[in-house]
Amino acid sequence: MNKIIRCRMIIGCAVVFLAGCASLDKEDQFYEYQAPREKLQTVESLELKPANLNSAAEQKAEPNTPVAPEKWLISIEQCRAETLKNNLELQVQLYAPTAAQAAVNAEEAKFEAAFVANTAVSRTDYPGRLVEVSDGSYVGSGSSQYRNIDAGVGVQMPLQTGGNIQFNLADSRDKNLQSGSLFSPWYETGFTFSVSQPLLKNAGTRANMHSIRLARYNKQIADNSTKLEVIRVLAAADRAYWRLYAARRQLEVRQKQYELAQAQLDRAKRLVAAGQQSDVEVLRAEAGLASQLASIIAAENELRSRQREFKRTLDKPGVDIETPTIVIPQTEADPVYYELDKNKLIALAEENRAELLDLELQIASRISTIDYLNNQMLPLVTLDYRYNVPGIGVTRDDAYDMLNDKNYENHRIGVSLWVPLGNEAAKNRLRQAMILKRQTLASKENRKLLIKQEVLGTVDQVETNWQQIMASRQNAILEGRVYEAEIRQFEQGLRTSTDVLDALTRLAVAQSSEIKSLTDYQISLVDLAYATGTLLGAGKIQWEPITPVLPVN
Prior knowledge:
By secondary structure, the protein is an alpha+beta fold. 55% of the residues lie in helices and 17% in strands. The chain has a domain at 211-365 and 431-531: Up-down Bundle (Outer membrane efflux proteins (OEP)), CATH 1.20.1600.10. The chain contains 13 helices and 10 strands. Strand 5 and strand 6 form a beta hairpin. Helix 5 (95-108) runs antiparallel to helix 7 and helix 10 (354-375) packs antiparallel against helix 12 (424-491).
């Protein structure tokens, strides 16, 4: 019987221990890393190889490298969808809500019951009393030696009220190692039920749920931050789209300007051949044509830069920033004039801006902390109750029979008090929490003012950009007429190629300004939506956190 009980206790302890262990994935297992010394203290040099301008050899791609598409036609709606699907900054942020939820689950688990077990083996020598012998010395009399084996199992249950309930079952075997003992060995058993409950400090569900409330507030803050990141990333994708649109349109203007300069050169050659113009007009036209190449090169470089920005923002697989894929926006800038109600936009911003919700959650967290610290100001008064049923016998069965019969029952109830003298630490912690709450309230009012200023500023910018569209469009029309008039006068011999090319340059500048005003208007609408905590478009955006598969269930 003795061996069976011990075996069960050992197996139970082993099962509990193994249940608390997790087999970690290889990437999560412990390791130590020491950076190589040369990585930390050696600065490598960059060696550049002179280009062979006469070589026409093309760089060959690696055999296993996937071939990127030559062109990528994309609309503004597809841009947003690809951003939500692939953007790396957003993918990083989507882990935060899952981690915050794990923290909430960990706090909520603080009221889980726990299995406890213990065992001990001891050997005790008692010297007894000293007896004087005839020679005046002393020897021990009545000494004894015992060997004791104790074991116990139990369950502890924390309560949401701050108390604790515990059930324990004890089993011991005692043996007198000296001869002459009437009963040896003998067995003792005992069942104990105990309750401990604070009455003032740490009492009640509100105080003991404080850490869980904070974890839940932090979870909502993480969700809110993720929502803000979704808005920020999508707004950045919209801006990148319109900047790419503008760069492509600017290149088209420069290319058209080059074609018109070429037409002017052909026109000058024809008139010179007819004897209507001097030879210098051909030189002027050739110089004007050559100057257009620099504008085309600059526009192409700007387009490549905007394409890389766009590819990085969307991070679509197979279309990395180093690929030569040409991105062609399909959604045209079609500006619509909107009547903007500033008061409604300010109210919309105060309702939707993530920063205000974040501060609101912080205020709720501060209030919970103040309430908890106010509870910590109270004295610690604890009520304890203990109920015990003992059993003893010359065999273990006799001891458990006595335990089951409950022939002997013990009760104990008591109250303990702990009061700090002065309580300065608790007072100052409460004072600090109150100050932080007032600081957060002040931050909220300041943030409201800044948001109002931002909304009004973006509204003004939208209206200004609309006026810029009207002005630049009219300017482009007039400069086009001037350019055509200069051509007619050149053909009549009243103007030179320089005059025609100057008019062409002014026309290109006017067309570039019109493109810039169109895209600035679209971007200002994106900024206005961002200022109100929303996104452009008819469809709502629903994001989901990333929940990785982990070995810990």
